[in-house]
Design goal:
Strand order of the largest sheet: 1-18-2-17-16-3-4-6-5-15
Radius of gyration: 30 Å
Structural class: alpha/beta
Distance between the termini: 5 Å
CATH superfamily of the largest domain: Vaccinia Virus protein VP39
Shape: globular
Number of strands: 23
CATH class of the largest domain: Alpha Beta
Mean pLDDT: 89
Largest sheet: 10 strands, mixed
Length: about 625
């Protein structure tokens, strides 16, 4: 649970993340020892007449190699469910999640179950304005000499990278964002999209970073949001009254965005018939690519002929927009007036999303403050929280009714409220995952934090969770919609160095007489038993998510947790009688298992040997694999 990832991190390199992706995408180019056969790949590309170019550009910044290393390492945290909160009637069946912890660790945990499933990610990361409190806080935990050995840097560069900690430079910001975006990309569904709020301070760097991480061809666009009604003299030269929402897709060929149901038509629909309002659009058009099949004589209802008007008869360049077959099928949509042919352009119920988010329906920064103040007796605990209107718009145009939405810079939890608001509108069942660092509220930092502290909130996540609960009550009271108003709460915790040392030094073969029940209890946390912590961590790792259907089967005296095709031996105390009962249930078909995951510290060496021998010789011939974890 902790020893395994810790030991894996001891040998991790900056390239491990990319190599793992290549291994999944191109397994045929790896030999039996795990070596990548680059020559074979080059040969395949040449035979396919793929142009191998060395041209182009790439983003370089101090700390990039370390950012890649962070992407490649495994999280050494465990997932602790808040049992009191999660068993409350409002939350026990909820599919919404709120995770308290470092979002870098959270993203690594979430990949085990939610990789490729998130339709919409919205994040509002630090803008690095110099006054927003951003400093690079990821813990290096290495000396310059160790970085030289792990990452292959020069000693001078290693010292400069370590010096990034506590800084707010562009390089520090990019080092902070790079691994988080790399992991977020893998969480996106094939038709998923990520929206990132930013201002001018890091907009150009964010674009360059996203081009590298998501691919330049996957850029959806930079939406310009009018954040202020007026505009302060922010730059010393112009009044800045906008921010950006940078959008990238996982797959450019997938339909990422849908229509905007609240879009205001820019066309004047000044005519109507039994099918609704419409405007007229000329059927003929000038085209750079001439098509003889689209150049024909069109006969009107009164027998009059209509010809295309070519500017140069020798070089025809005009065509009809519709083919002859389409003309025959949609003749009722043609209008013949003033010597021209028109088609009826009917008013649509929705429009294509626009890049300019300037209408009041997208909200302003002050709207975000009003949204929050209305839930906390007029008090706003964040400077310029994003408005519900803005996030609701992004959710409407990018999700289906059952989509999964992720925000791993949760802050004021606007995203959770927006998901509930949109669900209440259309009866959807969208689910939200929010992640927020357990960050103390500093009453000396600004008036917003001072007000939050005075109101009794000591940590940012406390405010966010209170906001979700209060918004749920208001939406339910206002709409009476039957949607998911709750959320399940989890915390990411790092075991102590003492615990890690004890886990690393324990050898089952040398401690055969010792049952290691105290090793499980070392993960006890605020009323949550260590066995529950281990089970939650592993279920998420194994693809069962944070809201799984866990069953329990009684062996002899031992109760075995089950989920899907997997059983989990976490607590100590499994005896020979329990093993006999396990084998009997497998033989008779009363228990359907393909895997048995075992916490190695909870079974003695001899007990583990007995378990392996029994499962190896099942009379039914079925195979149950044993996975030992430490």
């Amino acid at each position: 649970m902790i020893k395994d990832p810790h030991e894996a991190n001891e040998t991790a390199t900056p390239s491990d993340f990319e190599v793992a992706r290549l291994r999944v995408a191109l397994p045929e180019y790896f030999d039996k020892d795990g070596g990548f056969m680059f020559d074979r790949l080059q040969e395949a590309l040449r035979s396919g007449e793929v142009n191998l170019t060395r041209e182009g550009y790439q983003l370089k910044f101090l700390g990039k190699s370390y950012a890649k290393y962070l992407t490649s390492t495994k999280t050494e945290t465990v997932v602790v469910p808040d049992l009191e909160h999660n068993t409350d009637a409002a939350n026990e069946k909820s599919e919404n999640l709120y995770i308290v912890g470092d979002n870098l660790d959270a993203l690594k945990h979430l990949l085990g179950s939610y990789g490729g499933q998130v339709k919409c990610i919205y994040i509002d990361p630090p803008y690095n304005t110099g006054s927003d409190g951003f400093v690079y806080v990821d813990d290096f935990g290495f000396t310059a000499k160790q970085l030289v050995e792990k990452i292959g840097l020069g000693e001078d560069e290693a010292k400069r990278i370590i010096d990034l900690q506590g800084k707010s430079s562009h390089s520090a910001w990019l080092t902070f964002m790079y691994p988080r975006l790399e992991l977020a990309k893998l969480l996106l569904a094939d038709d998923g999209v990520i929206f990132i709020s930013i201002d001018d301070n890091e907009h150009s760097n964010l674009k360059a970073l996203c081009d590298e991480v998501f691919g330049e061809q996957n850029a959806v666009g930079s939406l310009i949001w009018k954040s202020k009604s007026g505009g302060a003299n922010d730059s010393g030269q112009v009044a800045v009254d906008h921010e950006y929402v940078v959008a990238y897709a996982r797959n450019p060929e997938a339909a990422v965005l849908g229509l905007d149901p609240l879009a205001t038509a820019t066309t004047s629909y000044n005519r109507s018939d039994e099918n609704g309002r419409y405007s007229l659009e000329r059927l003929d058009k000038q085209n750079l690519t001439y098509s003889r099949s689209m150049d024909y004589v069109l006969v009107g209802p009164d027998g009059e002929e209509y010809h295309l008007g070519h500017k140069d008869a020798e070089s025809p360049n005009a065509i009809w927009r519709w083919s002859k077959d389409t003309i025959a099928e949609r003749a009722s949509e043609l209008v013949f007036e003033n010597g021209h042919v028109y088609t009826k352009n009917y008013e649509k119920d929705a429009g294509v999303p626009r890049s300019l988010l300037v209408d009041e329906r997208f909200g302003r920064s002050r709207t975000g403050s009003t949204d929050m103040g209305s839930l906390f007796n007029g008090k706003t605990f964040f400077k310029n929280p994003k408005p519900v209107k803005l996030i609701s718009h992004l959710i409407r145009v990018s999700t289906r009714v059952d989509s999964l939405v992720l925000d791993f810079f949760a802050g004021s939890s606007t995203t959770a409220e927006a998901v509930m608001a949109v669900n209440a509108e259309d009866g959807g069942s969208r689910r939200s995952i929010l992640v927020q660092l357990h960050e103390p509220v500093d009453p000396s930092s600004n008036r917003y934090s001072k007000a939050a502290y005075a109101a009794g909130y000591k940590f940012i996540d406390e405010i966010g969770r209170a906001r979700v609960a209060r918004a749920a009550t208001r939406i339910q009271t206002k709409t009476n919609a039957t949607i998911d108003y709750g959320f399940r709460l989890f915390r990411l915790e790092q075991p102590s160095e003492t615990t890690l040392d004890e886990l690393q030094s324990f050898e089952p073969a040398a401690n055969d007489a010792l049952f290691a029940g105290d090793f499980v209890s070392k993960f006890d946390s605020n009323g949550t038993p260590g066995a529950v912590v281990a089970l939650s961590t592993w279920l998420l790792q194994d693809g069962f998510g944070l809201t799984p259907d866990v069953q329990k089967v009684q062996l002899d005296q031992y109760e075995l947790p089950l989920c899907g095709d997997s059983g989990y031996v976490i607590r100590p105390g499994m005896t020979s009688d329990d093993l006999v009962a396990l084998v009997t249930k497998l033989e008779t078909g009363d228990l359907d298992l393909n895997r048995l995951v075992v916490f190695g510290y909870s079974m003695t060496f001899s007990a583990m040997h007995e378990l392996k021998q029994n499962l190896k010789s099942l009379k039914s011939g079925r195979t149950v694999s044993i996975i030992e974890r430490f």
